[in-house]
């Protein structure tokens, strides 16, 4: 029994680690979509955050500066997106795709100078897993939540903050109103453009921080394409979470658990006589399950599962 419990705790601990970067990115995407903007550039912003975060970490040895640099890189990418889609009223889908291509190129350019480098001890020590006394001894969830890198715990706190911001504050109410009906929000005296810019850029910062988790904590080194499509999973998990930051935690950790299962089964399935499954099939498992969940949610026509009414539509004040 103790052996099973220890295995379960370890599995949940790894699941949280593997889902942290996706959680940050999902929260960032939720903030953008709540003001009516579908940003498909999440992958690009994550890559920019990962490359800039690693570069600053290597040069300064300061973990705080590394995270801030990652946030700034993701925020700049989001600012470019916001300028094109909010001010110039460009197509949101095309702009997001271009942002992903742009972020991939920028990260590849920076990656040439940081490939093969090792992070300073000050960075690895700062982000190393540390057990919180008493709390880490709680059965099942203790190691999952309280025997982790501070980065993992920071993601959970961020999810709660974003939830409170969107659902328990007047500013959050205005944010949701902008996403539902920007014309009505504008007529009520709400600064639609300001809300759109601030939420899109803040979401980009979260995406950048999520990307930096991979290069600063999870790997930690630089690899081209280090996000491995996590940005696209984050876009899908926004729907899985029904635009709810708390549900995003479950979605991100489910993705992490499926990744963990894939790694665990690469050596074979014990109860089937050690049958070995193709590694490509195991890598596909998290993405396949994500698609199936999205199909299931799409079939349930509940009001709370629907996106903001003005999602993806540019706002023309002159047509109000």
From TrEMBL:
Cellular component GO terms, alphabetical: plasma membrane
InterPro entries hit by this protein: ABC_transp_permease
A single MF term (Gene Ontology): transmembrane transporter activity
Intracellular or extracellular location(s): Cell membrane
Residues passing through the membrane, by range: 12-31, 38-58, 64-86, 93-111, 149-166, 200-219, 231-255, 275-299
Topology with respect to the bilayer: Multi-pass membrane protein
Major localization listed first in the record, in broad terms: membrane
Keyword Protein transport carried by entry: no
Keywords: Cell membrane, Membrane, Transmembrane, Transmembrane helix
Organism: Papillibacter cinnamivorans DSM 12816
Stated name of the protein: Nucleoside ABC transporter membrane protein
One Pfam match: BPD_transp_2
Signal peptide span: none
């Amino acid at each position: 029994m103790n052996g099973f419990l220890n295995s379960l705790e370890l599995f949940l601990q790894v699941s949280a680690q593997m889902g942290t970067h996706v959680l940050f990115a999902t929260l960032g995407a939720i903030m953008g979509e709540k003001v009516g903007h579908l940003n498909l550039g999440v992958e690009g912003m994550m890559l920019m955050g990962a490359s800039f975060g690693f570069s600053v970490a290597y040069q300064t040895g300061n973990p705080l500066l590394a995270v801030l640099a990652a946030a700034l890189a993701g925020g700049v990418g989001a600012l470019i997106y916001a300028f094109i889609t909010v001010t110039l009223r460009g197509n949101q889908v095309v702009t997001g795709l271009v942002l992903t291509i742009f972020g991939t190129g920028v990260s590849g350019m920076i990656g040439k100078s940081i490939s093969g480098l090792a992070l300073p001890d000050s960075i690895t020590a700062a982000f190393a897993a540390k057990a919180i006394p008493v709390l880490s001894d709680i059965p099942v969830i203790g190691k999952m939540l309280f025997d982790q890198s501070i980065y993992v715990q920071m993601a959970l706190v961020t999810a709660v903050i974003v939830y409170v911001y969107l659902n328990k504050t007047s500013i959050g109410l205005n944010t949701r109103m902008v996403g539902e009906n920007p014309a009505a929000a504008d007529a009520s005296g709400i600064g639609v453009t300001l809300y759109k810019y601030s939420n899109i850029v803040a979401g980009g910062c979260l995406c950048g921080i999520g990307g930096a988790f991979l290069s600063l904590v999870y790997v930690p080194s630089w690899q081209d394409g280090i996000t491995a499509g996590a940005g696209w999973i984050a876009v899908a998990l926004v729907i899985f979470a029904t635009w709810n930051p708390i549900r995003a935690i479950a979605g991100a950790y489910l993705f992490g658990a499926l990744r963990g299962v894939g790694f665990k089964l690469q050596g074979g399935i014990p109860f089937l006589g050690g049958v070995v499954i193709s590694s490509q099939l195991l890598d596909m498992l998290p993405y396949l399950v994500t698609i199936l969940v999205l199909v299931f949610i799409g079939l349930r026509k509940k009001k709370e599962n629907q996106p903001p009414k003005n999602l993806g539509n540019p706002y023309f004040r002159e047509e109000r």
